[in-house]
């Protein structure tokens, strides 16, 4: 089972690494980190780089395609090489998946046209504008297309996929190895749970960045 | 605020990347990925590499020291350069922290002598043998020493640290940006919650690897 995870500059590292940890433990899994060019791809802060060992043209028919998100995603929405690779890989994939704003790239490739999907809570309008039908769920499975909400949701998605591919016992064993027994100190991980002041602070910061 | 995250070959990537995502959003945070040598450090499977941009000698007085775990940790338990760096950094740090079996490195450096700490559930005996006092909690805070349980526990630890450093509102904002509203498909993330058959399967695999 070949699993291709797309890397690019401006990636949110946890979008890729959360699912990597879970999916790489699937029986027979071969994870390939792919990029337009080989080499280090940096997060927006610049302080972390993940290495793409393979170019897109080397990994043409992965069983699982995983598209992480991050601020660098936007620069690829009109990139014919990346969009063409996604479309071609989707034709033969078992699962085509995204985490966070990775869904916007799948949508830009036309893969989510009229399909229910999710993304980071702050990007629902963008997702709709690109032709998908946004759904407020943590993991959305529609046929072979699986989209996860923001950043950390990729871990939950990967465990769902692991169960579908290898059964509940294997997925639970992976969860136990990762000691994924979450105990966040606050219950503030989604817009409907966070205190209004916290949500408003982020939305104000976002408005300040985005000229309307 | 300078945050040093140790990288090494055989690291568990999520141990480092989970806390990185949360801590890098702290006001004024500068995250430095450090290694014995600069360059790519690979996970055990070999398919993912994280890049250390700095050598140990370049980052001598970080405010936060974070030691991830992973199978490569054991090779460093007798490495005088790494242990010496940890001891020196701990002298001036605000927080000395570990995720998963990273605690075994802190213990090997003598930093956990007689100190209550946690690690991955499968490494409690090793942690005790190295002089620490194992505690079955997800995050253990004792003075400025903070240890997290296995792999994904680093995210919970980082949010606790964020709250201590920058207040609850900032920590909640970070949680909301990461959309950390966990919804694992199973409740199998700790040995006391996983079905006995799942736990026994992992323990049998572990016994097969470790000659007694």
Molecular structure report:
The structure is a homodimer of 212-residue chains. Chain A has 212 residues and is of the alpha/beta class. The first copy, chain A, folds into 2 domains: 2-181, Rossmann fold, CATH 3.40.50.880; 183-212, no CATH class. Chain A has 7 helices and 11 strands. The first copy, chain A, has helices spanning 13-23, 80-92, 102-108, 124-129, 153-166, 168-177, 196-209; strands at residues 2-6, 30-35, 39-42, 49-52, 54-55, 64-67, 95-99, 116-117, 133-134, 139-142, 145-148. The first copy, chain A, has a 7-stranded mixed beta sheet, with helices on both faces. In chain A, strands 3-4 form a two-stranded antiparallel sheet. In chain A, strand 3 (39-42) and strand 4 (49-52) form a beta hairpin. At the A-B interface, helix 1, strand 2, strand 4, helix 5 and helix 6 of A face helix 1, strand 2, strand 4, helix 5 and helix 6 of B.
């Amino acid at each position: 089972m070949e699993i291709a995870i797309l890397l690019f500059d401006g990636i949110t590292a946890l979008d890729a690494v959360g699912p990597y940890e879970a999916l790489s433990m699937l029986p027979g899994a071969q994870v390939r980190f792919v990029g337009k060019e080989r080499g280090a791809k940096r997060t927006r802060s610049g302080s972390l780089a993940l290495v793409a060992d393979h170019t897109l043209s080397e990994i043409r028919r992965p069983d699982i395609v995983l598209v992480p998100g991050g601020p660098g995603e936007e620069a690829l929405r009109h990139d014919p090489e990346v969009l063409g690779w996604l479309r071609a890989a989707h034709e033969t994939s078992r699962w085509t998946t995204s985490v966070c704003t990775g869904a916007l790239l799948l949508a830009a490739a036309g893969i989510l046209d009229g399909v229910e999907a999710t993304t980071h809570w702050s990007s629902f309008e963008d997702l709709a504008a690109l032709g998908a039908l946004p759904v407020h769920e943590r993991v959305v499975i529609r046929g072979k297309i699986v989209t996860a909400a923001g950043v950390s949701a990729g871990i939950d998605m990967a465990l769902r996929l692991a169960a579908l591919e290898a059964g509940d016992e294997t997925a639970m064993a992976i969860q136990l190895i990762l000691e994924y027994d979450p105990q966040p100190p606050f219950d503030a991980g989604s817009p409907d749970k966070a205190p209004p002041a916290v949500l408003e602070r982020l939305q104000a910061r976002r408005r300040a960045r985005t000229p309307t």
